[in-house]
């Protein structure tokens, strides 16, 4: 919810307003489940609870406890029913980098193993949301083989869809920390007894190669591509490589029973905004600017 440069001394009010605005509008996108992370306690536990009460967002954490009562601070997991498919999801956090009295962080790998044992037989797909880097949880992935997906939220980089996932392991995706992309995962389950296969590479290959062929054809849509470039052997060789790639991708896809594909949607200026939400967000940003200016004036 927070970036350190927003929650600087004197900017606490505007940082909280930004966070509330983000939560308010993402909740309108559908069922939104957040794993509690390192920076989410920057404004204190009471602020997170306030957001939970005031908006339709859901926080998950299976290893953050109230130290005094020995009870979990948030829901430990959720099981969603989607098109006759049961999807289990739980969240864990490696550590909290803020001095927060009264909150206990249990070992996230040990808790993850417990959740896998508890949920695996109850769901078709099991997802772990983890606030840790791959460097930290990576050595334990073999012990977490009951998972289908691992989504991590503390990496500075993102997983590129074109990188082939390792077969026989949970599918791992890094979503970055800058909020510049939305990660999208598409599932097509035909037979629940069959394994889930990542086809992100093949889907991207089809998209990119088809677009390149289309671009080459645009030079003269009425003629065959071989005719257009008959005097350009390098271009014709490229055409053959593109066609071979498309054929290979389609061949792989035709053999897959249960598929999973991951894509990144860049949140650039080309993405159309919902006008009503954009208007409200701009008003909030103006208010944040005023709050910061007021804070500076009071401090001087």
Structure description:
- The chain is an alpha/beta fold.
- Among the domains are: 31-179, Metallo-dependent phosphatases (Purple Acid Phosphatase, chain A, domain 2); 203-252.
- Helix content is 37%, strand content 21%.
- It is built from eight helices and 13 strands.
- Helix 1 (12-26) runs antiparallel to helix 8 (275-299) and helix 5 packs antiparallel against helix 7 (233-255).
What would you call the structural class?
alpha/beta
- Determine the mean pLDDT: 87
- How would you sum up the major sheet? 5 strands, mixed
CATH superfamily of one domain: Metallo-dependent phosphatases
Q: Could you say which overall geometry the principal axes of the C-alpha atoms support?
A: globular
Low-confidence segments, ≥5 residues, pLDDT <50? Answer: 2-6
Give the DSSP E fraction (strand runs of 2 or more residues): 15-25%
Could you tell me the CATH topology label of one domain.
Purple Acid Phosphatase, chain A, domain 2
H-E string: HEHEEEEEEHEHEEEEHHHEH
Helix proportion range: 25-40%
Could you outline the blueprint of secondary structure elements for this entry?
Layout: H1 12-26, E1 33-35, H2 45-54, E2 58-60, E3 64-66, E4 71-72, E5 77-82, E6 85-93, E7 103-105, H3 108-119, E8 125-131, H4 134-137, E9 149-152, E10 171-174, E11 181-188, E12 196-198, H5 200-217, H6 225-228, H7 233-255, E13 258-266, H8 275-299
Parallel strand pairs: 1-2, 6-8, 8-9, 9-10, 12-13
Antiparallel strand pairs: 3-4, 3-7, 5-6, 11-13
Task: Summarize this structure briefly.
With 300 residues, the protein is an alpha/beta fold. The protein contains 8 helices and 13 strands.
